[in-house]
Amino acid sequence: MKWRRGQEELISGLFSWLVPPLINLVRFKCKPTLTPIPNALFRYMLEFFASTLSDAIGNLKERKYLRSWIQAACVTSATWAVGGILTGKDRQLFDSKLRDILMGRSPDDPLPGPLNNKFDALPPAEGLVYDFVFDFKARGQWKHWNDVVKNTELPETLTALTLIPTVDTARFYHIYALSKRCSRPLLLIGAPGTGKTRTIWSKLRSASTESCYKYSALPSSDTADLRAWIIGKLNKKSRGVYGPQLSKGHIFIDDVTSPHPDSFGDVALHEQIIELVDTHSW
To answer: 93: part of which helix (H) or strand (E)?
Structure first.
């Protein structure tokens, strides 16, 4: 990543400045949907940051704008990698803390030296940081997700998989693309009937060059069911090695909360999924 040359001090300063207070906020003052693991949050933020800039750097026409791009990418990655596991009022708390730090209003978190006493990529004041995405073109600017939706073109032919763009789908597709580029698993959480399954499946099926497999968990689902289903869907490449029909594939596990816990309170299916993810088995 050649764009990092000469920017190491700025990047290191930004992460050392933002990561500790934001992770501490999520851990000790919020009620996240998942148990936050500091090392994992930092790693995901770093990967999202690098992926965001690597994907956008082709649009950089003048290197003088790179500093503000780096700062914007840091805000974006912090918002979704660290603050993405928050909901409701906790998101407002995260937004307030992040803005206080960026604007130098947090006495415990002064602006680092490489910023020269000014943060160049402040998100708009109207709304939360979750409401905006940075457009990496020319100088770069923050755009509200509503503007992104308005400029989204619908296909000429509508199918059963076609979704009408909304702010939620636009944000999800953005995070999905980031997770995919980083080869990271993605967990979508929400209330029943909010379109989670439809949104994910529509996006996966639109990738015609990749295999897609959907497993719908049932209350009685266990590790044997999942293992048999996976082997039944994949092609045998060699002894003990299975793979998708095409060059790449996605496994979508729907309704993971369905299986009942055992007498110890554990859900065997969840444990197997965690093991497969942690060991990079898929």
So the answer is: helix 89-102
* Encoded tokens for 76: 């974006």
Q: What are phi and psi of 199, to 5 degrees?
A: -65, -45
The 10 Å CB-count burial string (b at 16+, else e) for 154-167 is: eeeeeeeeebebee
Q: Which two tokens stand for residue 215?
A: 């497993």
Element holding 132 (H helix, E strand): strand 132-135
Helix or strand holding residue 143 (H, E) = strand 141-144
Question: With bands split at pLDDT 50, 70 and 90, how would you rate the model's confidence at 282?
Answer: low
The rounded mean pLDDT for the chain is 89
| DSSP character string of 223-268 | HHHHHHHHHHHSEEEETTEEE-SSSEEEEEEE-TT-SPP-TTS--H
Q: Read out DSSP for 171-232?
A: HHHHHHHHHHHTT--------TTSSHHHHHHHHHHT-TTEEEEEEE--TT--HHHHHHHHHH
- Tokens 């500091």 map to which residue? 38
Neighbours of 74 (CB within 10 A): 27
Instruction: Enumerate domains of the chain plus CATH numbers.
Output: 2-150 (1.10.472.130), 207-278 (no CATH)
- State the DSSP H helix or E strand holding residue 135, giving kind and residue range, or none if neither: strand 132-135
54-58 CB contacts, 8 Å cutoff, 24+ apart: 54/1, 54/3, 55/181, 56/136, 57/3
Predicted pLDDT of residue 208: 61
pLDDT-wise least confident of 34-48, 63-77, 135-149, 183-197: 183-197
Spatial separation of the C-alpha atoms in residues 78 and 74, rounded to whole Å: 6
Entry pTM: 0.85
CA-CA distance, 70 to 74, in Å (whole number)?
6
Tokens for 248?
């790449």
